[in-house]
Amino acid sequence: MLGDDVVFLDELGQAQPFKRLFSTDRRRLEHYGTRPDSRNDPAGGSDEVWFDPTSAAGWADPAPVCLLGLIRYDPGTPFQMREMRRAETLNVLAASILPTGMAPGRCFDQLTRIASRAKAVEIAFDDSARAADELRALA
Length: 139
What we know:
Elements: E1 7-9, E2 14-17, E3 22-25, H1 26-31, E4 48-51, E5 63-64, E6 67-73, E7 80-83, H2 86-97, H3 108-117, E8 119-125, H4 128-138
Parallel strand pairs: 6-8
Antiparallel strand pairs: 1-2, 2-5, 3-4, 7-8
Helix pairs in contact: 2-3
């Protein structure tokens, strides 16, 4: 499962993770058996540390997109999930390109490839743990 605020799609329609340091809690790293490196502690004694997942085999390799989730947190809404049709998926993908300034037509072949291969679901939820479990089960 790959999730991030930035995921690049290459010309073959494969997801490429945006590799960068991320901030996490020192105790959480230690709980999972990873010793945080003190030189990555810019706050000096803080529980927050910057971590490079490369050392823990934490980066994903490029992979075909197999599941797309259009996810919406909606307080008070019981968990809902529905499968999206291919044409609807293609429309959502094309619309996601517009804010980047790139013309969707330049990516049409890649978007079509993804829409034809990946299962796409729309999810509304107020319980993030359940939403994560349902997505994990689908993946």
